[in-house]
Structures are given as structure tokens and as C-alpha cells.
Write a structure and sequence with these properties.
Blueprint: H1 14-27, E1 49-53, H2 86-89, E2 93-95, E3 98-102, E4 106-107, E5 114-119, E6 127-131, E7 138-140, E8 149-159, E9 162-164, E10 171-174, E11 177-182, E12 185-186, E13 195-198, E14 202-207, E15 210-212, E16 217-222, E17 225-230, E18 233-235, E19 243-248, E20 251-257, E21 260-262, E22 267-269, E23 282-288, E24 291-302, E25 305-306, E26 309-311, E27 314-324, H3 327-330, E28 346-348, E29 351-355, E30 365-369, E31 378-380, E32 383-386, E33 393-396, E34 399-401, H4 403-410, E35 417-420
Length: 429
């Protein structure tokens, strides 16, 4: 008869220690992989990582997939489906060195939309929300008031996305720094601004985007600083005079260059806003080297803007030219103790032709300036092109003036030119 022998294993042996440690880790929850299909939190990684979201891709799933492939490769290596689960909504929240590429499809959101909250400490750790190469994903705000995408933290980028039906802003940069918004299409907005800067957002680059069908302003900067808005196209808002770009509420050090603004309102360098601690609505806003076509209202309006500049712009068809208006025209604003008048404005090297006027203003109105706003004003080398039978008009201190009286009144702009639209200075642009 064969006996059965049971070997004794010491509790101090390496085998028992390993088993006990594994049991403790599992009991504490440490045995769950961050890419586990049952984990509700986003996957994490010590190094840069790219995740994929693909609404139209067979096999895409927010729970089963690890999100690490643009298509289903088997063994749970497949893209997420959308941003409507807690796991996928948090992919770019409180992280660094993460890139999310979104494939074709239409994406909607739960609650307040999608947050990008970067904890990056340098550009090498930038978080990125981007369209998958060659595809055009659509973010649909469903006309809900909360913004579709909000960016905060520092070092974040949004690239190649299409935004539609925003209720509030399609995208808001809320107090972030070193943010890049590039190559996107902002195609419709119900009742607000397409892109908004707020909460001290600084060091922001807005480049090569298309804006259309916005309601209030395509870009509205409040309490923002050091923005570059370059090489974008703005056209056909839902309201004909809705301005393309506005800076107010103490915004400063803004550069607006190389943009095309067409069949829309112009730009606002300062404007009325809520209460704030600054003496001016805007400081050091530069609008230079842009092209304006078929502009409703004034091409550029100044309100409580110190050290601001409108230079080397081309204006081809507009209702009115430049306005230096203060509280007498636009009403009081939110600066502590009242906003100071515009000071040290520069309007140089602009070319304006075919100013048609409207029901309130005559044709050929190149300037409207309140006397309170001309402190430190410099104007030079502008070309004012008049159509046949039209006079060049300049409204100043309550009167409508010809060019010579305008120069005497404002004591600047003597090097500028009034010319018939058929003459050489008014051709070739």
C-alpha cells in the first residue's frame, strides 16, 4: 500500500511570502492594472502615451478597450468609442505627456463637456487633443450652455477639431498658460463666443483656424494676456455685425496679425465689461497686417485702450472706418472708478476703400473720434480711397470734417492721403 506524504512548507519560505504579499496587494486594490477594462479611471503612464477615440470604428469600446490603438487589433487592444464615460471624459484631466487622437465621427458630451487640465511642467510634457491624421472629427455642443471644451493648466494643445452647435463657448481657455489652438474649424455657435479667454489665460496661440456662424464674437478675450492670433479666417457670423475679435476686461499684450476677416464685424480694442480692478479695458493690443473685406459697422473700435495699435491693414469694402469712442458713445464700463479714455493709440499705414456707410452713417466715413480719446494719438501714412462722387469724411468732436480740417483738429495724420479709388494708391490690393 502506497502512503501519501504531505510536505511541510515553512511560513518563512520565499513562496509563502510571495503569496501573502500578492494577497495583500489584491486586497488593497493594487492588483488592478490602470488599463483594466473594469477600471473607471483613465489609463496612466510614466511616459508619453497616445490614446485613440473612434466613434465609427467596429470594436471600439470605452470599457473593454485599452484605447491604445486606432482600430481593433484584438485582445482588448482597440480604441475607445466616445467621451461619454467617466473613464474617457477624464483622459486629459490632471495629466501630462498624454495625446488623444480622435477619429471621424460626431461626438457629444455629458454635463459640462470635455476638460483639458494639464499638469505639464514643460513643453515636452504638453497634453494634446488632436484629429487623427486625415480625418475630421466633429464635437457637437448640442446647443447646451456649457462649453464643449475647456482648457486649463499649462502646456496644452487642441488641433484639427471641428466644433458645431456650441451653446456657450465652443472652446474656453480658462486661466491656462502656454496653450495652442491650431488648425481647427469653429462652424457654429448659438448664443455666445466661439472661443473665449478668461480667468487670466496667458501665453496663448490661436493660429490657422476657421471661424464662422458665431453669435457674439468669434474670439473674446477677458482678463487675458500675451495672446497671438495669427493666420486665421473669420467669415459670415450669424449676426452680420458680430465682431471677429474683442479684447477687454483688462486684457493686454495681444497681437492680431495675418488674419482674413470677411463679411463680418471688425475688431474691438477694448469694450464695455463687468467690474474689474484695471484703469483700462485693454492695454497694448496690436492689430497689424490683416485683411478686412465687406465689414459691417466699424472696422476697428477703440474703447479705453492704452498703447494700442492698428497698422498696415487692408480694408476692402466696409460700412465705416476706425472709431475712437469712449463712454459718450458706448456708455460706462467696469474699471474701478471708471475707465480711462483711450491714450497713445497708433493708426498707421492702413489702406481703406469703398466705405459704403449705412442707415446711421454717411458713405466715406473713415474716422469717428471723440475729442476725449485723442490724447497721444498718432496717425500717419494711411490711404483713404473715395469712390466716384464720394467725399472723404472724418467725424471729430461732434462735427463732420473734410480731410484738411480733420488734420488740424486731431493734430496728426498729415502724411496720410485721400485719393480716388481708381488712382494708383488705391489699386493692386
Amino acid at each position: 500500500m502506497m502512503s501519501t506524504h504531505v510536505s511541510h512548507v515553512s511560513p518563512r519560505s520565499p513562496f509563502v511570502f510571495t503569496v501573502l504579499l500578492s494577497a495583500l496587494l489584491l486586497a488593497a486594490g493594487c492588483g488592478n492594472s490602470p488599463t483594466s477594462p473594469t477600471d473607471s479611471s483613465p489609463p496612466t503612464s510614466a511616459g508619453p502615451r497616445t490614446y485613440y477615440v473612434a466613434a465609427n470604428e467596429p470594436g471600439a469600446d470605452n470599457t473593454r478597450c485599452d484605447g491604445l490603438a486606432p482600430r481593433d487589433e484584438g485582445s482588448n487592444r482597440c480604441p475607445f468609442r466616445d467621451f461619454r464615460s467617466p473613464r474617457t471624459a477624464a483622459l486629459l484631466r490632471g495629466v501630462a505627456s498624454v495625446r488623444v487622437e480622435v477619429r471621424s465621427g460626431t461626438y457629444t458630451f455629458v454635463g459640462e463637456g470635455l476638460s483639458l487640465d494639464s499638469t505639464a511642467r514643460s513643453a515636452s510634457e504638453t497634453i494634446v487633443l488632436a484629429a487623427y491624421a486625415g480625418e475630421q472629427p466633429v464635437f457637437d455642443g448640442e446647443e447646451q450652455w456649457n462649453g464643449t471644451v475647456r482648457v486649463s493648466g499649462q502646456y496644452a494643445s487642441v488641433e484639427g477639431m471641428t466644433f458645431v452647435r456650441g451653446g456657450g463657448a465652443n472652446l474656453e481657455v480658462r486661466g491656462g498658460r502656454f496653450v495652442r489652438i491650431a488648425g481647427n474649424r469653429f462652424l457654429s455657435n448659438r448664443s455666445s463666443d466661439s472661443l473665449k479667454g478668461s480667468g487670466g489665460a496667458q501665453d496663448v496661440e490661436i493660429r490657422n483656424n476657421e471661424f464662422t456662424r458665431w453669435d457674439s464674437q468669434a474670439i473674446d478675450m477677458t482678463q487675458s494676456g500675451r495672446w497671438t492670433i495669427a493666420d486665421n479666417t473669420f467669415h459670415d457670423p450669424s449676426q452680420p455685425r458680430a465682431k471677429a475679435i474683442g479684447a477687454k476686461f483688462g486684457s493686454r499684450d495681444i497681437t492680431i496679425s495675418g488674419n482674413t476677416i470677411r463679411a463680418a464685424g471688425g475688431v474691438a480694442l477694448g469694450g464695455t465689461s463687468a467690474a474689474h480692478s484695471d484703469n483700462y479695458e485693454a492695454l497694448n493690443v496690436v492689430v497689424q497686417g490683416n485683411r478686412f473685406e465687406s465689414i459691417g459697422g466699424h472696422v476697428a473700435t477703440f474703447y479705453s485702450c492704452v498703447g494700442c495699435r492698428f497698422a498696415d491693414n487692408t480694408i476692402d469694402r466696409a460700412e465705416r472706418g476706425v472709431r475712437l469712442g469712449g463712454a459718450g458713445i458706448e456708455g460706462p464700463s467696469g474699471c474701478a472708478g471708471g475707465c480711462q479714455p483711450t491714450r497713445d493709440a497708433t493708426i498707421n499705414g492702413n489702406r481703406l476703400r469703398e466705405l459704403s456707410g449705412d442707415g446711421e452713417a454717411p458713405s466715406g466715413l473713415f474716422w469717428l473720434a471723440e475729442s476725449s480719446e485723442r490724447q497721444g494719438l498718432t496717425a500717419a501714412n494711411n490711404v483713404y480711397c473715395v469712390m466716384p462722387g464720394q467725399e472723404a469724411r472724418f467725424a471729430f468732436a461732434g462735427g463732420m470734417l473734410g480731410f484738411a480740417d480733420w488734420v488740424r483738429g486731431v493734430q496728426t495724420d498729415s502724411s496720410s492721403t485721400v485719393a480716388p479709388s481708381a488712382d494708383a494708391p488705391c489699386q493692386g490690393w
